[in-house]
Amino acid sequence: MKLLNVEVVLSRKEDVQQAESEDGILKELDDKTTSYAILSHRWGAEVTYKEMIGLMKMEEQKREEVRNRNGYQKIIKSCEQAKEDGYEWLWIDTCCIDKRSSAELSEAINAMYRWYQNAQVCYAYLNDVDESVFPTERDRSKFGQSNGWPEWFMRGWTLQELIAPKQVEFFNRDWVYIGNKQRLAPTLKDITRIPCDVLTNGLVGKRLSVAQIMSWAARRVTTREEDRAYSLMGLFDVKMPMLYGEGKNAFQRLQLEIIRISSDHSIFAW
Questions:
Q1: Are 199 and 161 in contact (CB under 8 A)?
Q2: Distance CA 127, CA 155 (A)
C-alpha cells in the first residue's frame, strides 16, 4: 500500500518546495509490518493522487486552489493528528490510490478491509457534526438527509471502516475528538444495528449469518451502484475484479462468490 509520509506532508504545508518527488510524499510499504493511521470520511472536494504528488509542479493559481479545498485541509488535519499520536505514516483513500490505473484500484479495493484492519487507529471524520460531543440521539432537524444521524453512518464504504479497525476515533467538523467506538459502542449499536461485540472486537470468530451482515448495509448508500457490492467484499472475505459500468451485476457476482465459499442459505433472502 502507498502511505503518506506525515512529516513531508506537514512540511509541505509551510513550504511547497519541500516535496520534490513522488517518493518524498508517498511510499510503498507493507501493511502487515508498518505502523500507520488511516482515515475514514465522507467524500467532498478531494485531492487526487496525481494532484498530491504533483502539487509543487503546478502553477501557483492551481496549487492554491488545491490547497484551499476541504479535502486538502482534511489531509493536513489527519496528518497533524497522526503526528500527535506518534505515527509516521497515514493512508487516505482519495490520494493514496492512483485511480488512473484500473489494476491499482482493483487491488486496493480488494485489500481495503485488511488495510483498515491492520491500521493502529482509524480517524472517522464526521464533517456534519458541529458539537463537541458525539450525537447520542436521532436528530432529523440536523441530519435530515441521513435518517437523523451523521451522514457517515449512511454511506456504504464506512460500514467496513467501522468494523475492521481495532480502534476508531471520531472527530467533529473542527477536528475535535468526540469519542471512540469502544466507549460509544451502545450508541453505535443503536445507529447501525451492529452488535456491540462486533463493534469492539470485529468479525473474527463470530458465527454471523450472511443475512445479518447484509442487513447492516441495507439502508446505506453509495454514489456508484457497483460500490454497493464492492464495499461488502471485505466483510465476507470475498475477492473479485472491479468492473465499473456493470451496474447491478456487481451485486449478483458478490452473491455468487459468497455462495461459492459458504453454505449459509440466508443469502437467498437478498
A1: no
A2: 13
Read off the pTM.
0.94
Q: 81 near 9, Cβ under 8 Å?
A: no
The label of the residue with cell 488512473 reads 100
Mapped onto helix, strand or coil, the DSSP state of residue 190 is helix
Sheet strands (E) in the chain: 2-5, 26-28, 36-41, 89-91, 121-125, 168-171, 177-180
Max Cα distance, the chain (Å): 58
- What distance lies between CA 233 and its chain's CA centroid? 14
Quote the CA–CA distance of 108 and 29 in Å, as a whole number: 13
Among 103, 93, 119, 124, which Cα is nearest to 192's?
124
Task: Encode pLDDT of 141-185 as tens digits.
Answer: 999 999 999 999 999 999 999 999 999 999 999 999 999 999 999
pLDDT in tens, 72-101: 999 999 999 999 999 999 999 999 999 999
Residue 208 grid coordinates: 454471523
| Predicted confidence (pLDDT) per residue in 2-57, tens digit | 999 999 999 987 665 544 444 589 999 999 999 999 999 999 999 999 999 998 88
Compute the distance between CA of residue 208 and CA of residue 119 in angstroms, rounded to an integer.
Answer: 24
> Considering only CA atoms, which of 224, 167, 163 is closest in space to residue 192?
163
